[in-house]
Amino acid sequence: MKENHEELDQELNDTQLDPETEEVEVSEVEEEANELANLQAEFDEMEDKFLRARAEIANMANRGKNEREQLQKYRSQDLAKKLLPSIDNLERALATEVSDEQGASLKKGVEMVLESLKHALKEEGIEKIPAKGEPFDPTLHQAVQTVPATDELPADTIVEVLQEGYKLHDRVLRPTMVIVAQ
Amino acid sequence: MKENHEELDQELNDTQLDPETEEVEVSEVEEEANELANLQAEFDEMEDKFLRARAEIANMANRGKNEREQLQKYRSQDLAKKLLPSIDNLERALATEVSDEQGASLKKGVEMVLESLKHALKEEGIEKIPAKGEPFDPTLHQAVQTVPATDELPADTIVEVLQEGYKLHDRVLRPTMVIVAQ
C-alpha cells in the first residue's frame, strides 16, 4: 500500500504543476476516489480481521483458565486410582487377628498408616463413597449381587459393601461394589 | 470511515456535474490525496495491530501448551508429598520383629502394600533418591550430621540415611536426610 501512497503524492504534484489539464484532473479525481474506496474496503477488512483476532485472544484466555482449573482440580486422579488397591490391602491386612504384643504393635502401626493415607487422600479431595444402608445409586455403586427386600431392608437399599468405592470431588474414581435388596 | 467514503462519492459526482470549476477541482484533488494519506496511515496502524494480535495468539498457544505439559508432568506432586510420611511409617512398622504366624502374616501383608504403594508412585514418576554410599549432593541430600572421613569412607560420601528422600521426575519432593563423612 505504501507504493500507492507515494504514487498518489506524485500524482498530486503533477496536478499542481499543470492546472490547465482539466480533463485529466477529472479522471484523476475519479481515480483517486476509486483508490480511496478500495483502500477503505481494505481497511474495513483489516479491521474485521483485527477484531476477530482480539475476540480469539479473549476466548483463548478463558479456555486456558478453565483448562488449568480442571487440570488442577483433578490432578491427583491418576495417582489416587493407583493407590486404591494399597488401601484395600491395608484394610484387609488389618482384618488379621493378632495374639501377641508384637503383632498388636505392628497392627497399631498399620492402623496409623491407613489413617494418615486416608487423611492425605481427603486433603486432595478423595473420599470413600457412602454405601452401606444408603439407597442404591447407579452413578456411584455397582450392584454385584441382589438379595430379596424385607421390611428392614426395602428394595434398592445397599445391604453390604464388597469393595469400597472412592470419588475425587464430583468424579467417581471407582464405584462401590455392593449387594442390593430387590 | 464509511461516511467519508460516501462523502467522497458525492464530491466526485459534484465534480463531474460541473467540469468548469477548475480551482475547486485542484483543491478537491488535494483534499482527496490528504484523505487517502490519512486512510493509508489508519490502515497501516490497523494492520500493525492485527499482526501484533496474531503474534499474541501464537504466543498464547505456545504458553498454554507448555503450562499444560508442566501441570501434567508435576500433577502428582501434592498428593505424593502427603504420602511420604505414610511410607516412612510403613517402613518403620516393618522393622517390628514378629514371633508368631499371625504376626508374620500381617507383616507379609504390609510388605505387599508397601511394594504396591512404591509401584504406584514409580508409575507416576516418583522415586527414592539414591543416597547411601553415594557422593553427597546438596541439591538432593541434607546433611544432618558428619563423621570423620576414613580410607573406606572418603570425605563427602554418604555414610547413613536417616530419612529417605524422594523426587518427582527432576523435582525433589523431599531431600534425603543423611550422615556425611568429612
UniProtKB/TrEMBL annotation, chains A, B:
It holds the Pfam family GrpE. InterPro entries: GrpE, GrpE_CC, GrpE_head. Residues 8-22 have a biased composition (Acidic residues). It is found in: Cytoplasm. It comes from the Bacteria. The keyword Lipid metabolism does not apply. Keywords: Chaperone, Coiled coil, Cytoplasm, Stress response. Residues 1-22 are annotated as: Disordered. SUPFAM superfamilies: Coiled-coil domain of nucleotide exchange factor GrpE (SSF58014), Head domain of nucleotide exchange factor GrpE (SSF51064). Residues 22-77 form a coiled coil. One of its GO terms (biological process) is protein folding. One of its GO terms (molecular function) is protein-folding chaperone binding. GO terms for cellular component: cytoplasm. Belongs to the GrpE family. Homodimer. Participates actively in the response to hyperosmotic and heat shock by preventing the aggregation of stress-denatured proteins, in association with DnaK and GrpE. It is the nucleotide exchange factor for DnaK and may function as a thermosensor. Unfolded proteins bind initially to DnaJ; upon interaction with the DnaJ-bound protein, DnaK hydrolyzes its bound ATP, resulting in the formation of a stable complex. GrpE releases ADP from DnaK; ATP binding to DnaK triggers the release of the substrate protein, thus completing the reaction cycle. This is Protein GrpE. It comes from Enterococcus mundtii.
